[in-house]
């Protein structure tokens, strides 16, 4: 089965997805859509994509497209994904999949009603080194993980108009890079946290640029996490448990190396990839679509639910409210 893909949006991650695509198995990059015809044409030319659409709706409407990769800023994910699912397209949607848990429920309902595959694009889950870490954690080690430490800080100069700082574009470090340590903790402990302690610093645009978090999971297992978009950090993760330590270092969200230490023995697993590592999530989506699965068994809807519910709770704790939510709160008053 050859699955014909369309890309919705022509920004930074759309380009990396397109560059990775030819390393994926089971699909064909068929079209791209932009809000501007010029950008769609340029992106299509640059990436050798045969069709360019000058509106997102025309991509969703196309009978030639089977699956859509959504690469717009987070506040647009809900509307864009809903549009595609309603037209019967399978959807791979960038992270965070929606701005809140309620929106995600609508999308999974739509996927079910329309018989579509739907997955959040948590590419990290399918990177080969992470798959090995997952085997260590959930299949091979005796005793559960007890403690996790992970950081994800990038340095970006403050620009109120950029996606990372503009609240109308879902700005802030938590929803962008902070997503990854929160996902890793939930994946490691395979549950939502029971309690959350969070502290944040805010920019003048009203979004967080630094968050430190302690999440406590059932069984008093803990994760100490941080994220920032004005501080560069090593992006390291360490997971400790009964007689073991796993280190994913550097770049735990797209690792090429991880080690497992038990007593005096350390085993290292290394595996590289070209060019960016987005092909593995695409291969998984293609496999699931070919098998008519609505969700990936390795990244089920419930995992996305656990993450977005946790992000909702963290935002509540630090007082991070986005403009649409302020308007909604005003309407409800
Ligand atoms: N998985 C990863 O490694 C990774 C990395 C980076 C980002 N992301 C996620 O991917 C999403 C996009 O991030 P990005 O860095 O690619 O963003 P970006 O470079 O700003 O691109 C976003 C694209 O979305 C479209 N868009 C639609 N409505 C828009 C609006 N109101 N304002 C600006 N752009 C709009 C634009 O395409 P057109 O103008 O062509 O319509 C734009 O090029 C985010 O949700 C982010 O969390 C994931």
State the main characteristics:
alpha/beta; 8-stranded mixed β-sheet; 14 strands; 10 helices; 2 domains; globular; Dihydrodipicolinate Reductase, domain 2; Rossmann fold; binds NADP nicotinamide-adenine-dinucleotide phosphate; 6-stranded parallel β-sheet; 333 residues; 35% helix
Verbal overview:
The chain has two domains: 3-124, Rossmann fold (3-Layer(aba) Sandwich), CATH 3.40.50; 128-272 and 307-328, 2-Layer Sandwich (Dihydrodipicolinate Reductase, domain 2), CATH 3.30.360.10. Helix 2 (37-47) links the parallel strand 2 (27-33) and strand 3 (51-53). Helix 4 (74-86) runs parallel beside helix 5 (101-114). The chain is an alpha/beta fold and 333 residues long. The chain has ten helices and 14 strands. Bound molecules: NADP nicotinamide-adenine-dinucleotide phosphate. NADP nicotinamide-adenine-dinucleotide phosphate (NAP) binds next to helix 1 and helix 4. The site of NADP nicotinamide-adenine-dinucleotide phosphate has 22 residues, from helix 1 and helix 4.
How do the helices and strands line up, and which of them pair or pack?
Elements (H helix, E strand, L loop, with lengths): L2 E6 L3 H10 L5 E7 L3 H11 L3 E3 L2 H6 L5 E4 L3 H13 L3 E4 L7 H14 L3 E3 L7 H13 L4 E9 L25 H11 L5 E8 L5 E10 L3 E8 L8 E5 L2 E5 L8 E6 L2 E6 L8 H12 L10 H18 L4 H10 L1
Parallel strand pairs: 1-2, 1-4, 2-3, 4-5, 5-6, 7-10
Antiparallel strand pairs: 7-11, 8-9, 9-10, 11-12, 12-13, 13-14
Helix pairs in contact: 4-5, 5-9, 7-9
């Amino acid at each position: 089965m050859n699955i014909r893909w369309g890309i919705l949006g022509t920004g930074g991650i759309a380009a990396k997805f397109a560059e990775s695509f030819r390393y994926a198995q089971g699909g064909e990059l068929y079209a791209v859509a932009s809000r501007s015809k010029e950008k769609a044409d340029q992106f299509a030319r640059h990436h050798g994509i045969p069709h360019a659409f000058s509106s997102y709706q025309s991509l969703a409407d196309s009978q030639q497209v089977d699956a859509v990769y959504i690469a717009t800023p987070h506040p647009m994910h809900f509307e864009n994904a809903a549009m595609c699912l309603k037209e019967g397209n399978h959807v791979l949607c960038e992270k965070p999949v929606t701005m809140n848990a309620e929106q995600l429920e609508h999308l999974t309902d739509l996927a079910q009603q329309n018989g579509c595959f739907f997955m959040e694009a948590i590419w990290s889950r399918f990177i080969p080194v992470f798959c090995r870490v997952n085997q260590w954690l959930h299949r091979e080690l005796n005793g559960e993980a007890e403690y996790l430490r992970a950081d994800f800080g990038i340095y970006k100069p403050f620009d109120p108009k950029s996606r990372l700082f503009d609240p109308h574009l879902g700005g802030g470090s938590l929803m962008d890079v902070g997503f990854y340590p929160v996902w890793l903790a939930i994946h490691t402990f395979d549950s939502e946290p029971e309690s959350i302690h969070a502290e944040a610093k805010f920019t003048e645009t009203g979004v967080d640029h630094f968050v430190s978090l302690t999440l406590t999971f059932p069984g008093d297992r803990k994760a100490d996490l941080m994220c920032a978009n004005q501080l560069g950090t090593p992006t390291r993760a360490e997971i400790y448990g009964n007689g073991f330590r796993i280190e994913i270092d550097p770049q735990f969200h797209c690792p090429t190396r991880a080690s497992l230490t038990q007593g005096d023995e350390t085993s290292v697993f290394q595996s590289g990839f070209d060019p960016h590592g987005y092909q593995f999530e695409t291969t998984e989506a293609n496999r699931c679509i070919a098998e008519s699965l609505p969700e990936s068994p390795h990244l089920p809807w419930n995992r996305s639910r656990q993450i977005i519910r946790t992000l909702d709770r963290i935002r509540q704790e630090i007082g991070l409210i986005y403009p649409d939510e302020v308007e909604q709160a005003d309407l409800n008053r």
